[in-house]
């Protein structure tokens, strides 16, 4: 199998991100292809099909535009038919319903995927066990790679892990990965997690992720959250998101808000948005306003808009005017317009 990933996306909104994504993957040693590389004169459909059929892994960038794209739908159909490993990225909106059984990485806000995600792709584009030499390894042949792997050579470590698995020694391979991770080898954490899950040891996989996140490894936070949710531990997943947001990181704020709302904790979700806006996070102002209005707290929503406009935020002036008029406060709306018209 040719070692590259095929990137599927919705053209209208996602092309800029996908170009950055492809550059990011290539710089990490993962060859990536997307349709911007089709040369003028090529037959578009035949090239797409040939490149998809030949890829080692399929990356789909999930956005509302992509979900409504007939091309993305066709590409996913083809990837599923050919049993390509699928690696979704959530850039905007919600995960695709049809891919809800597959772990995705949250890259909302235009973030590039984590090192853990890249390692998964790297593993997917490696030759399969059927394509690798299957000669059994004698104990003596394994000793030197094992010593070097223990010393921290990750390339040799993966070589040994793959050979142990070829020899049917999956437990030994997992034990080797565990020793590496427990000695501080975080680059192999996701490899260990996937092996533990494959072996039916999901609780143990979650425990390793928890230790990593508890030690400050926020790169695996969403991976842990998704695993906890799959295990039915939604409250624990929310608690991890809360600690992250309360520590001052806003990158997961909307993820936390959505999880709280799904858990029926809309008041708590609004409180997090309020703290963010009151600390100067104006990018979340409209999100807060809509949530307050949905909760029947229209006067609070107006108060936030007023404060923003009075502080010089003219970008929300017409939003405030329209809401004042809707609330029957035409005199206030007119006075506001007069003040701004007068300079």
From TrEMBL:
InterPro entries: TIR_dom, Toll_tir_struct_dom_sf, TPR-like_helical_dom_sf. Gene3D superfamilies: Tetratricopeptide repeat domain (1.25.40.10), Toll/interleukin-1 receptor homology (TIR) domain (3.40.50.10140). GO terms for biological process: signal transduction. It comes from the Bacteria. Residues 1-125 form the TIR domain. It comes from Allocatelliglobosispora scoriae. This is TIR domain-containing protein.
